[in-house]
């Protein structure tokens, strides 16, 4: 009997069942198995002598015959071909003795000989077995052989001679069907009797019993993961991987090589390409693939599970694998294979000397970016850089890689600039690449290096004509004046015919100083003579620009434009959507940049907890950021947020984090230095704080980035001077800040007016604080508004207006509480005497069609309509126009019209002059 089947389909299990049954029936069972590790002549048959039930006399007889046969086999002779059983002449006598010993034994009791892995049995043993099979038909002897299907090591003569025997039977074992798979899953694992469940497990195992048993063991080892409904997914673990490798390498050398070829080629595999790669003929390729298919390892020319492919690749000899990938790349390129497919093989080969490799890898990088696979793009460019011999091209590849790496890791992108920077300093960087290097330095905020690069660029351009200047890829932010608040962010991308971002080349003007790039960080980068506002221009850019490598910098600049133009409320939703888009596009570096901006936006809105959370996201996304200047941005936001919350220990921990020295030569260093100063100020180290603010101011002036919307260092320093008791210096700094460009920002003006009130005479304090409140209400910064309201409440209390002071102070406390500024809340309570009572006003609900009605004295009520009185009453309580509109279900414009009429009827000029008798008895507004 010959049992055949693919590897893993149960041949050995069948033999074990036969031997168990025969032994139970009283037969003498002799077992042997073929192995590639022992191919000594007659080595397999010697295993038959190991049976403990074999009589000693028979064993001695068999051993003598095998010894003689081995001796004959060691003597080279010509082989005559006349023996019908295939036994050569020198072996006939020994074979007869071997047969006689077993025949004599079979006369006394039934004998069963089982030989597994027949395709690996040595040739001499096969000759003896065949001689025995063809000349022992009358003996009580059963011979059972097991052999792998489609093995390239089968003995064709042996199989043919067996077919000629009338007492021969052949048993073919097939893979399990999915119905049989379902039965096993139900009986062995207790899984639901579901076609969907069975088919999933069948797809992984291919119906191969060995692989199915392995994946079932992995499932048990994993602790039977929880089921979701009737879906029970298989678990692919070590047992499955080892079973796969066993199936592959027990199928023979040719099949193993084909498995390796399929794993290497992946989706590019075809029978023709496999044959060329492995130097195997078409027939051998067909047989080998058929063997893999019979074992359930492949579906077509693809492994059924990615773990199978990974396991085969991992088990390959490293040098063989590298060589196979190199040849696969060449063959694919010669056959017109896809660029990315060829590039992946070059990457797997870890290098190439082919002349076409560098341009192909650069093209592959662009294709990978189009598919949002930045990791693959960077890998292609790194390999192209290593293979390239042209210095100018190498420089361009390195700088291009740094730009793409920004998608993944801003810190790594920044580190990649060190090499071209060193080349620039040594006058080895080709002129064509200086412009892009400066762009990236600016994008990373590295001001000092950008200054040096611009100087060298100017030197190069002074010797260049107008035509050659156009080769430099300058952004429009260099070509326009900066700092003008009435101009829009014109460095943004404009959609061209190709859907990409067009850059404005530098024509007749050189960036003679950093004043031409101030706008990149201030948000007020210009658009020539356009009268379009920065906010409108920035929003237009964001609306029409998709997020790509070409538009990323203009998009970041446009978001910053909204922030620094005093519209964080407009910047926040754009930033949120861009963070989501970056995550979807597998660009963690971009997401980190937008998260850092989002932290600053939250800070400018007074949302301290939110700011710290976004800063944490930015820091956690980017590994190894401690060596990058980028860390300064989110760290500054965290320190400022924790300091404003009163969490000084948390702020101190962030300040203790190591930062690179280069941080203080970058744009991020300004914010970090300011944050450190704010911490010192809050912890009563006033002189240290003043030193930080003044240092930040000097750097901002040196770099011509001295704009209050970007860095309000004067108001910070003024606050420190006030703590030191020098009101004159404080007032001077604040007045200077109010006089500068960019001080039209309502947040800057509000903070400046609050400090100017503190530094000035008591007579003007209430008026200045009222103006500060108005400005800060427009800015949306609830924390700064809470500080201004607190100061106004103190001033009113000092002038005897206790009722109005309590209302405004209560409002300040509530805003500080909403912002998470617990330290400010505590100070308001203590300073205002509210610690013994709830700082929220006591209210009485009044009925009315539009909500609560105010209690208005008759003398005032006769002048005001009911709607005007209601609006005025809420204004007295310190609510903003937006909050009044939301409370009364009217528009902000209607609120403004009502207040204008109230001012006219009461002969006053601002809401600060509204009589406290108008205070509303209303429900608290959250």
Task: Summarize the structure in words.
- The protein has 926 residues and is mostly helical.
- Among the domains are: 2-173, Rossmann fold (3-Layer(aba) Sandwich); 318-389, no CATH class; 405-474, no CATH class; 858-918, Arc Repressor Mutant, subunit A, CATH 1.10.10.
- Helices cover 60% and strands 3% of the residues.
- It is built from 46 helices and 7 strands.
- Strands 2-3-4-1-5 form a 5-stranded parallel beta sheet, sandwiched between helices. Strands 6-7 form a two-stranded antiparallel sheet.
- Helix 5 links the parallel strand 3 (111-116) and strand 4 (141-148).
- Helix 35 packs antiparallel against helix 36 and helix 40 packs parallel to helix 42 (822-832).
- The radius of gyration is 42 Å and the shape is elongated.
- The chain starts with a strand and ends in a 20-residue tail after the last helix.
- The model is unreliable at 78-86, 465-530, 836-856 and 920-926 (pLDDT under 50).
